[in-house]
Amino acid sequence: MMRVILLMLGLSLAAAYKNPQYASGRSTMVHLFEWKWDDIAAECERFLGPMGFGGIQISPPNENLVIWSMNRPWWERYQPISYRLITRSGNEQQFTDMVRNCELSGLKDLNQGSEYVRQQIVGFMNRLIDLGVAGFRLNNLNTNHGFPSGARPYIYQEVIDLGGEAISRDEYTSLAAVTEFKFGMELSRAFQGGNQLRWLANWGPQWGLLAHEDSLTFIDNHDNQRGHGAGGAILTYKQAKQYKAAIAFMLAHPYGEPQLMSSFDFTNTEAGPPMDSSGNIISPSINSDNSCGNGWVCEHRWRQIYSMVDFRNVAAGTNLNDWWDNGSNQIAFCRGGQAFIAINGDNWDLNQNLQTCLPAGTYCDVISGSKNGNSCTGKSVTVGNDGRAQIYVASHEFDMMLAIHRGTRSSL
Fold this sequence. Notes:
Layout lengths: L4 E3 L6 H4 L9 E6 L4 H12 L4 E6 L33 H13 L3 E5 L2 H9 L4 E4 L5 E3 L29 H23 L24 E2 L22 H13 L4 E6 L22 E2 L5 E2 L9 H12 L5 E6 L4 E6 L3 E6 L5 E6 L5 E4 L6 E2 L2 E2 L3 E4 L4 E6 L7 E5 L7
Parallel strand pairs: 1-4, 2-3, 2-8, 3-4, 7-8
Antiparallel strand pairs: 5-6, 9-10, 11-12, 12-13, 13-20, 14-19, 15-18, 16-17
Helix pairs in contact: 2-3, 6-7
């Protein structure tokens, strides 16, 4: 069985980001937020593995409190109560089977936790008769009760803190905003017109971000997409055009280790995942166009996003080169001689002869369509012997970007 890596927010996690141990030729993790273990196992085999994803992040697998008073909110999963591997996502055997199936599909499983979750444990020390999702009753944990097999509760000594000192939620939020949210906030701001895209030419540590090897990069996560720690400025699936462009830039750029969010639809920021009247999570349905139904957004299944995961895999090991911009919000760059992307954030068309750094030939734009035999369902780009091509991205188009590469899904 694969090694499960515990991801915790804050400074204690920097080392874990340095080597995600993805299978060769893969990159990018995706957070399948609140998915059931059986559904994750199936998704690894039918989609994530074939599409070249490197890892999955899951919701906490251990028993949590049941909070019917708020109709099972999303943060219920972050109220740990025992070590039992039983949640609405499934039981221990289903968890084990999911891990094994995803490993066989070429992905790593990255178990989600956080410093804040561990801080919540302290708050439960004085709770009386709270019921966990697996049926465990918390009855004054400061006393020496006997506990049923497998139901050992968390105790205070097992809380991990920073430097031996407990931190408040406000302090945690401030820390998280510094170490994690700055990346998503800055890119969200730029792709919403708050800063010109040309300034992204030196994106990375020069923007006050962590060193490349220490950085887990993302636009949104389960927390900040609900306005926590980010002032509500984060792009999410709700601003689809700008969001896809920001994700495309993140995946095209060599900086950091990227993480994608796969959401369920919500209007109430407290709402939990789609569920039936008994509180059971409803599985995502898979539509004929590869999108999800039953209330699930599944951003990782959007063509513009999974195609850029492939782009990143093809470009692996190369640096950014041949940056171009128009002095405003039209930018383009190469990744070595492997891949090229152009993004138009202006209100007028991008129509330029640009250096793509690719060998002469015809390439399918993986944003507007896909390769289908010897043709493209979307745009095609003809690259000359000098590596240059006429690149066109109209301001009114459905997507803000164009991307081509030497991989089998783009090169004709």
